Amino acid sequence: MNTRAGGRSERVRRDFERIHGRAPEGVWAAPGRVNLIGEHTDYNDGFALPMALPQAAVAAVGRRTDGLLRLHSAQGDGRVTELRVADLAPGTVPGWARYPAGVVWALRERGLAAGGADLHLDSAVPTGAGLSSSAALECVVAVAYEELYGLGLGRPELARVAQYAENAFAGVPCGVMDQMASVCCAEGSALHLDSRSLEVRQVPFDLGGHGLRLLVLDTRVKHDLADGAYAALRAGCERAAGLLGLPALRDLAEAELDGALSRLPAELVPLVRHVVTENGRVERAVARLADGRPEALGPVLTEGHASLRDDYGVSCAETDLAVEAAVAAGALGARMTGGGFGGSVIALVRAGEAARVTAAVTQAFTAAGFGAPAALEAVPSAGARRVG
Ligand code: GAF
């Protein structure tokens, strides 16, 4: 099934023709994601369980032989951004264009024959909502280039290239989860990701068959991973691993946690406790899905939120209130998803309770003087692919 992205491909193709005055060579899509559990574990070489959203970035692309990269976005200001691929350098491209341009730069940094192209992008992934809108832009360009320029990298390597573009070209020190989710997810499944080996396993996640729905409530509090807080957390984790003599916090077993915490400075204790217990929550979540009990994910989600709020310190008043109101209204579990400092909350609900939970969160926001959240529904959807 082609979900909404496939349905949009004809329009994106027509828009490309109007903007670039020629036919594209193809149309590709790459989705945003929600992460079910496993937050702030990826840069600790740990585990995560994301799933792709139906909302995707769609790109119509055609190669150029003159070394120019001509970028247009339906969400942009209407102008075409024209860049010379040979001149691409970190820090030189502002705004949304740094994500597609960064991928072309990252491919060339690897010595790959990535030349120019005309691109038209149209993304349905909400921006600043913690749903990986930037990874979707990167990954749609990565899969298009993989095919058009015959790069032969394969999925996990494409995700690495996209991550490198975001780290080194756009200046955001993210881990690899969002890019892996965008390129490797499969319809009907969550993705069990080992961020060290990049091994993945598709874990069937049949919400509808179990009478469940997964709500996404975007608090509309914009988060920005480049603002320093994310980098500081990452640095804290790396420092803790160093002090413990470990390659990464992934190498600390839950059974050894108490002993390890007693050897760390007080400010690193909650960070380490979150990362180690969060890896454990991923394993518990996967076991519950494997047992055919997706409703049993609920308590794992809510416990994960408490850890992000109390130990990792990446929640905020709006995400805490959304979780609290959703659970009070009967959600099986809820948590913030993504990097935090705002963004979205996911809530696992019985299908018949979806409207009530959404209304309860909206009412709680009104009572607290917050703007109304935007509601979406998460359905485990396909990863990046050609759609036209
Ligand atoms: C953001 C980052 F981009 C990811 O790599 C990950 O660290 C996540 O925050 C937190 O789990 O989405």
Automatic annotation (TrEMBL):
Pfam families: GalKase_gal_bdg (PF10509), GHMP_kinases_C (PF08544), GHMP_kinases_N (PF00288). Residues 289-365 form the GHMP kinase C-terminal domain. Gene3D superfamilies: 3.30.230.10, GHMP kinase, C-terminal domain. SUPFAM superfamilies: GHMP Kinase, C-terminal domain, Ribosomal protein S5 domain 2-like. Its EC number is 2.7.1.6. Keywords: ATP-binding, Carbohydrate metabolism, Galactose metabolism, Kinase, Nucleotide-binding, Transferase. The keyword Lipid metabolism does not apply. Residues 15-63 form the Galactokinase N-terminal domain. It is an enzyme of class 2 (transferase). Transmembrane segments: none annotated. Residues 99-184 form the GHMP kinase N-terminal domain. Signal peptide: none annotated. InterPro entries: Galactokinase, Galactokinase_CS, GalKase_N, GHMP_kinase_C_dom, GHMP_kinase_C_sf, GHMP_kinase_N_dom, GHMP_knse_ATP-bd_CS, Mevalonate/galactokinase. PROSITE patterns: GALACTOKINASE, GHMP_KINASES_ATP. Belongs to the GHMP kinase family. GalK subfamily. This is Galactokinase. The lineage of its organism: Bacteria, Bacillati, Actinomycetota, Actinomycetes, Kitasatosporales. The gene is galK.
